[in-house]
């Protein structure tokens, strides 16, 4: 009998023989499919699982469906307008411009009345409390490809690989939402695109093709990420990156206030990034990079 609470750990143990970035073979897929059938759909108050036991196209559809469901679950919603109608589940949080504060939803809210008519179902909380409310989409290693990039467009929904390795394969990704944690995504030759000024975005153990992790105003935190040519580039830069691998021509920047540490550049000399704090970085020839 499978304990539902232990199921993610048990599934991860089943995958210990797989190589990062590789989809399940037929035997592993059958084993996982059998366990899924035995325990039903694994989902909790703040998480849900994507199993990826179908074709790459079917897996991509499953991931998208799970992400759409996550949008209805308890999470940080960003800014909501008091005079508008929303369907918000109990446990969700949001920022309200009208009162200049953060609120917790204590009972389900329907769109029958505007938000301000449901103030008896809200509790004032701190910013830190509000932004800590997240729903996580846990993705089993495999190929989730249908020919188009996956869009991360909703705050408060994290997407993580079950194993934590770069083994969730996508046709690229477009991240436009802030307050998001992404771990274990491999975009192959496709770009890992991020929008401007995403200061609360955290990307961990992710890979992208040319021009990945780049924006006009690059912000956020990037840890153990790999980008190919012209990656980690921006006009303005407040991002913090560590333990990352930077492709040829990367780190192009007019000025920065973030830090770069424990990174390695493919280029012979580490790019000059005016204003950035560069520490413990390595040039392509193995020499220590100069701190600017």
Written description of the protein model:
- It is a single chain.
- This protein has helices spanning 7-14, 26-39, 56-70, 127-131; strands at residues 47-50, 76-80, 93-96, 101-105, 122-125, 135-139, 142-144, 150-152, 157-161, 168-170, 173-175, 180-183, 185-186, 192-194, 201-204, 207-208, 217-218, 221-223, 226-227, 234-237, 240-242, 245-246, 253-256, 259-261, 264-265, 277-279.
- It has 292 residues and is α/β, with parallel strands linked by helices.
- The chain is globular and about 65 Å long.
- It has 2 domains: 26-73 and 134-292; 76-130.
- Strands 1-6-9-12-15-18-21-24-26 form a 9-stranded parallel β-sheet, covered by helices on one side. A 4-stranded mixed β-sheet has the order 2-3-4-5. A 4-stranded parallel β-sheet has the order 16-19-22-25, with no helix packed on it.
List strands and helices in order, with pairings.
Elements: H1 7-14, H2 26-39, E1 47-50, H3 56-70, E2 76-80, E3 93-96, E4 101-105, E5 122-125, H4 127-131, E6 135-139, E7 142-144, E8 150-152, E9 157-161, E10 168-170, E11 173-175, E12 180-183, E13 185-186, E14 192-194, E15 201-204, E16 207-208, E17 217-218, E18 221-223, E19 226-227, E20 234-237, E21 240-242, E22 245-246, E23 253-256, E24 259-261, E25 264-265, E26 277-279
Parallel strand pairs: 1-6, 2-3, 6-9, 7-10, 8-11, 9-12, 10-13, 11-14, 12-15, 15-18, 16-19, 17-20, 18-21, 19-22, 20-23, 21-24, 22-25, 24-26
Antiparallel strand pairs: 3-4, 4-5
